[in-house]
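As a warm-up, study this chain.
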Amino acid sequence: MRFRVEPKNSNLVMRRICAVPTAFMVAPSATIQYQSINTPEDLSSLPTVGWLSTHLQAAWTFQQADREVKINNESRMVCDDIRLIKESIVKGVGVGCLPLKLARQELLDGSLKTLLDDWTLEQHKIVAFYPSRQGLPPSVRALIDFIVDELAE
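Now compare it with the structure written out below.
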């Protein structure tokens, strides 16, 4: 069994665990000029930090009422470690998208600030993968149910 962000295509069995709300963030102490960012299009002028899975080309979909804007931006830094991405944003390497729960402490202490609060980002869905529904041990099924219940809070 494996947990990860829901892929576009997979031939494995998936069980949705939870949706992860995210926001675009910046370190207020950084030298990045973020004060004039009012629309997603304004992000194209800023350095970004992104996921390795985006293959160096970051794409974010912002929504506001009936409007949807997709932004493609070449990231200054990419990696597959969400903690390193968060630390890079805190240190001012660039702006980037983080799960709100992961950045809760930094948002409270002011080391991170959200951008474009009147826009929403597409939520990532965390799923559990396993090869088949048949033969899944009851203990594994119980673990998945427990995780779903815990993360629903």
